[in-house]
Automatic annotation (TrEMBL):
Organism listed in the record: Streptosporangium subroseum
Pfam families, sorted: Aldo_ket_red
Cross-referenced CDD domains: AKR_AKR13B1
Claim: Oxidoreductase is one of the keywords in the record: yes
GO cellular component: cytoplasm
A GO molecular function held by the record: oxidoreductase activity
The name this protein goes by in its record: Predicted oxidoreductase
Keywords: Oxidoreductase
Presence of keyword Oxidoreductase: yes
Residues annotated as domain NADP-dependent oxidoreductase: 14-285
InterPro entries documented for this protein: AKR, Aldo-Keto_reductase, NAD(P)_OxRdtase_dom_sf, NADP_OxRdtase_dom
Amino acid sequence: MQTRHIGDVQVSAIGLGGMPMSIEGRPDEQRSIATIHAALEAGVTLIDTADAYHLGANEVGHNESLIARAMAGYGGDTSDVLIATKGGHLRPGDGSWTLNGSPKYLKDACDASLKRLGVEAIGLYQFHRPDPKVPYAESVGAIRDLLDAGKIRFAGISNADPDQIRQSNEILGGRLVSVQNQFSPAFRSSEPELELCAELGIAFLPWSPLGGISRAGQLGSRFAVFADVARAHGVSPQQVCLAWMLAKAPVVIPIPGSSRPETIRDSVAAVDLKLSAEELARLDTA
C-alpha cells in the first residue's frame, strides 16, 4: 500500500470513511465489522469517523463505538492505524444536522469520543464544521487546548475555506495537519483548499470522493469519461476517480465511505492504478 503523511505519521494513501456504517441504510454490525477488517487486511491505516455518525439521538458516537469494537476484535497488529474523529456537528435524531462549536462543547465531545474509542489520546481530532454562532477562532482554540493537553495527537479541521485554513494553522501554532472537505467529480469547489493544503504541506482528505453514499455506484454513468478510462484499464470508474484524486497532489488522501468488504478492497486498489497525463487531463474536464 502506498503511504502519505498526516503530520509526521505515515498512513495509507486511501482511508476508510465510516459514515455509511452508521447512518441511514446502514448494514448490520457483522457486515460493518467485516468491512473494517477487510480495510485493515488491505493495508488501510486511516479510518475516519465522527461522533455525529449515528441515527437515533440516544446513540451518539455509534460509529466510533463500532470502530472500537472492530479494532478490538481484529486479530492483527493495529498499532499503526490512525483513527480520525470529529466534533462540533450533531444529529438530534430526526435526520437533521445541527452545529455546536462552543469550546466547552468541543472539549466535552472530545472526552466522550476518547471513552468510546477506548484510547488515551485520539489520533486525529477535527473540528467538524464552522458554527456561525461561535467565533471560528474560539472553536479552533478549543482544539488547540486539547492538543496542548495531550488528549489528541493531531489537530485538523473540516469544511473549511482558505482563510479558515490559514487562521487555524496560525491559532494552532503551525500544527494543523489536515483539512477534510467535500471533493468529487461532481463537487469541485474545494480545489482552492486542496491547492492551499499542497502549498502548506497539510493533508487534504476528500470526503464523499465518489459522490456520496447514494451516488457512488452511479459515478460511471454520471461522468462518461471516468467510465471510458475505467474500461481502458479494466477497472471500476470508482478506482479511476480515486487514482485521479491521488494524482492531484501528494497531500491528497481520499476517504471513501464503505459498508461492504468488496467496495473498500476495490477502492484500495486505486493506489496501483497509473493514469497517463492525457487521461488525467480528460478527467479534469469532466
